[in-house]
Design a protein that fits this description.
The chain contains six helices and no strands. About 85% of the residues lie in helices and about 0% in strands. Helix 1 crosses helix 4, helix 1 packs parallel to helix 5 and helix 5 packs across helix 6. The protein has one domain.
C-alpha cells in the first residue's frame, strides 16, 4: 500500500512538473516569436527556397512552414532550460515596449550584418594565423 501511495505521489509530482515545463516552453515559444524569430524563420524559408520554381513554390512553402512547429518546440525547451519562467515573463514585457518592438524588427538585420562583420574579421585572423604557421 505504501508503494502505491508513493507511486501516485511521484506521478502527480511529475505531472505537475511537466505542466510547469510546458508552460515555460510555451512562453519561450512566444518569446521567440515576439523577439523576431518568426520573421527570421520566414526569411530563411524564402532564402533557402529561392531556387524553387514558381510551379512548386506554394508546395515548398507549405512543407517548409510545416517544420516550424518542431523547431519552435525544440527552442521552447532550450529557453525553458536557460531561463526561469519569471525571466521569460520579464523578457516578454520588454518586447511589449516600444524599444522591444524596435529590437524585434531590427534583430534579424543586425544579426545578418554582424555575421558579415564576423566573417570579415575571421578572414583577417585566419591570414594572421597562416602567416605565423609557416
Amino acid at each position: 500500500m505504501k508503494k502505491l501511495f508513493f507511486a501516485i505521489i511521484l506521478l502527480a509530482t511529475l505531472s505537475i512538473q511537466a505542466q510547469e515545463n510546458s508552460a515555460i516552453q510555451a512562453k519561450g515559444i512566444e518569446l521567440i516569436k515576439v523577439s523576431g524569430g518568426a520573421s527570421a524563420f520566414e526569411d530563411a524559408i524564402a532564402q533557402i527556397g529561392a531556387g524553387v520554381g514558381a510551379d512548386n513554390k506554394e508546395a515548398y512553402k507549405a512543407e517548409a512552414n510545416g517544420t516550424l512547429n518542431d523547431i519552435y518546440l525544440q527552442l521552447g525547451v532550450l529557453y525553458a532550460e536557460e531561463f526561469t519562467e519569471n525571466e521569460i515573463d520579464e523578457l516578454l514585457k520588454f518586447y511589449e515596449t516600444d524599444l522591444g518592438k524596435k529590437l524585434s524588427v531590427k534583430q534579424n538585420l543586425i544579426s545578418q550584418k554582424a555575421m558579415m562583420i564576423g566573417q570579415s574579421w575571421g578572414a583577417k585572423v585566419a591570414q594572421i594565423a597562416q602567416k605565423y604557421a609557416q
